[in-house]
Specification:
Protein name: DNA polymerase alpha subunit B
GO cellular component, one term: alpha DNA polymerase:primase complex
Helix content: 25-40%
Structural class: alpha/beta
Shape: globular
Strand content: 15-25%
Oligomer: single chain
Distance between the termini: 54 Å
Number of helices: 17
Subcellular location: Nucleus
Biased composition (Polar residues): 122-143
Pfam families: DNA_pol_E_B, OB_DPOA2
Number of strands: 24
Length: 630
């Protein structure tokens, strides 16, 4: 068989510097890396070995023509790992033990009493979670040689500040929460006992999104036109129905008297908005979709961006320029009822909500929110994720919300293609398997929500984005995947989330004027308020460069039918927790408040980032939240 291996290598254009040695290593029964029995067990043929070598040398950018004997040990170890991972993927309960594991089991006479018998990956994760603030995770799942995590030295593992509160608001801890925390704090024993969360929260997923497997095909012009036209019509109907504004007219027709028009903000040409380049595009019904220059000089303050749908009060004396005296950028709350759901579907949701009313007297929810990347740029060990799960094990949140990217396409190893594993394999082994260990350890009351990102290398590059496909029956009752963007209710608390960095995109396109009296303006609150005022997760149009926005795929999934209690907008911009107010308030005025959270990124470069912990009690004014550095 040695001659056959050499022949296949040469047939595929490779030369061997030491033919006999390389062939023997590929078959050597005494080799600790890859024996003949290994080839037989995995049904490997010479062609399989050569095919694997092609992948190996391409990933490592080795010499394309010569197979060197010095490279074979590393290649054979790689090949063995690939076959083991493939076997594990086929049979999730299968676990491979290393020689160190076997030695420990055979030689450690006191193993049962000292550190416990080595068990399955799930059992080993309990040892990991028992030291949430001092545990260092392993690479690729790692192997425990003594019942404790193997200390892999990385810049992340060497950091000194762990779980430091960066920011908190409304620090009013619930008595029951504090009681639970005290029950877990023991200075003499840092082992976290396995305790069930208070109760399993209800969960209702709203809306619909694209089907899995869709691809961005550059949406048709008709779909784009219809989506934009429907947005303008929706705002027009809502503003007129409120009774606060007159019937809309064509803003391009010359008129000396005051008129009211609704349209979309556009930019006259390429580049950013400025005072001379603002256009208003009205609907086809009122102006045939024509645009007119918009003059905002008379307004003391405003904030506009391309794609924003606004109502304008003003006059157009020449027919070429609409001079605004008032700008309305929000739909009145009284007309914000959801008119997009099919009646049968809407009724089914109402029945589910009514059933949960019987078991929940007040809206209460404890959540931990983290946004990817979940691993540092110097490796694919996913150390920050492991420590986050350890923290969640201690805090016992009712819901753990994880937002992508999970397998980040911007990670150096992913971007360069130097990883030995497929993207799907990384996601299932490093993400889903860790989460499965976590929920099994936490018990049936634990819930995990996953929201994908367009930066996920293993998922559909399209926006709106379908949910992850999680086929494992052991996970579906505790791990739920949402579309991106997505909306759901947990214990009647409405939560909306979108992993596209709309805050960063708006900050680069927004044009604003602050009040002349010098009143300070919170820019982050203003940017986040645009999402609620426009009732849209991504109101910017045209979208930012690199955003695969496709209006042909479930365009209504971008629409926000009702103001959520919690709005999660992960961003590269600085973390924050803010209470947003919508509506006039005051006597007889309706006002709605929403907690907006940017948890930051869990991993930043080679170091740790931040995540958010939120305890919701009936409303923003009685809730508390913290941003925690990992």
């Amino acid at each position: 068989m040695e001659e056959e291996i050499i022949a296949v290598f040469k047939k595929n254009g490779f030369s061997l510097d030491e033919e006999e040695e390389i062939a023997k290593k590929s078959l050597n029964v005494e080799s600790s890396q890859l024996g003949l029995s290994f080839c037989i067990n995995y049904n490997l043929k010479p062609s399989d070995i050569v095919s694997s070598w092609e992948v190996y040398y391409l990933n490592r950018q080795l010499d394309e023509s010569t197979v060197q004997n010095a490279q074979m040990d590393g290649f054979l170890q790689y090949l063995q790992d690939v076959q083991k991972e493939a076997a594990i993927m086929e049979e999730s309960d299968l676990h491979f033990y290393s020689s160190k594991d076997v030695d420990m089991i055979l030689n450690d006479e006191d193993g049962d009493t000292k550190e416990g018998v080595l068990g399955s990956p799930t059992e080993k994760s309990q040892g990991l979670y028992s030291e949430p603030f001092d545990s260092t995770p392993q690479t690729n799942g790692g192997i425990f040689s003594s019942g404790k995590p193997f200390k892999h030295v990385t810049p992340f593992g060497q950091r000194t500040d762990k779980f430091v509160v960066k920011f908190n608001t409304n620090n009013m801890p619930n008595a029951e929460n504090r009681e639970n925390e005290l029950a877990h704090e023991n200075n003499d024993d840092d082992i976290i006992r396995k305790v069930q969360p208070r109760e399993r929260c209800s969960l209702i997923v709203h809306g619909s999104g694209p089907e899995p497997g869709c691809r961005f095909m550059y949406d048709r012009i008709d779909d784009r036109f219809n989506a934009l036209e429907n947005r303008i019509k929706r705002h027009t109907t809502a503003l007129v129905a409120s009774g606060l504004y007159e019937e809309t007219v064509d803003p391009t027709v010359a008129s000396q008297k005051s008129i009211f028009a609704v349209g979309m903000i556009c930019c006259d040409g390429e580049g950013h908005l400025n005072e001379k380049s603002i256009l208003l595009q009205s609907s086809v019904e009122h102006s045939g979709g024509q645009r007119v220059r918009l003059e905002l000089q008379k307004l003391s303050q405003f904030s506009v961006f391309p794609g924003q749908v606004v109502g304008i009060e003003g006059h157009n004396p020449s027919g070429h320029c609409l001079i605004a005296s008032k700008l309305v950028d929000s739909i009145p709350l009284s007309t914000a009822a959801d008119v997009n759901l099919h009646p049968a579907k809407k009724q089914a949701l109402d029945q589910e909500i009514q059933s949960t009313d019987l078991s929940h007297k007040q809206e209460e929810l404890s959540v931990i929110i983290a946004s990817g990347p979940f691993t540092t740029t110097d490796n694919l060990s996913f150390e920050p994720l492991t420590e986050l799960l350890a923290y969640a094990t201690r805090k016992l949140p009712q819901v753990l919300i994880l937002l992508g990217p999970f397998v980040d396409s911007e990670h150096p190893e992913i971007k360069k293609g130097t990883t030995d594993r497929s993207f799907d394999e990384i996601f299932h082994v490093e993400i889903l398997r860790r989460l499965q260990d976590h929920v099994e350890y936490m018990g049936s009351n634990a819930r995990v929500i996953l929201v994908p990102s367009i930066r996920d290398a293993n998922h559909d590059f399209v926006f709106p984005q379908p949910a992850f496909e999680i086929h494992s029956p052991n996970l579906k009752h505790q791990i739920t995947s949402l579309t991106n963007p997505g909306t759901f209710e947990a214990n009647q608390v409405k939560i909306g989330c979108c992993t596209v960095d709309i805050l960063k995109h708006l900050s680069g396109e927004e044009m604003s004027r602050n009040p002349a009296d010098g009143t300070p303006i919170d820019r982050m609150s203003r940017l986040a308020n645009h999402i609620l005022r426009q009732r849209r997760f991504y109101p910017l149009y045209p979208p930012a460069e690199g955003i695969p926005l496709d209006f042909s795929l479930a365009p209504e999934s971008l629409h926000i039918s009702s103001i959520p209690d919690i709005l999660i907008l992960p961003s590269d911009m600085k973390y924050f927790v803010k209470v947003l107010s919508l509506g006039e308030g005051g006597e007889g005025g309706e006002q709605v408040k929403c907690i907006c959270v940017n948890p930051g990124r869990l991993a930043k470069g080679e170091g740790g980032g931040t995540f958010a912990e939120l305890n919701y009690y009936g409303g923003p004014d009685t809730s508390n939240a913290s941003i925690i550095g990992i």
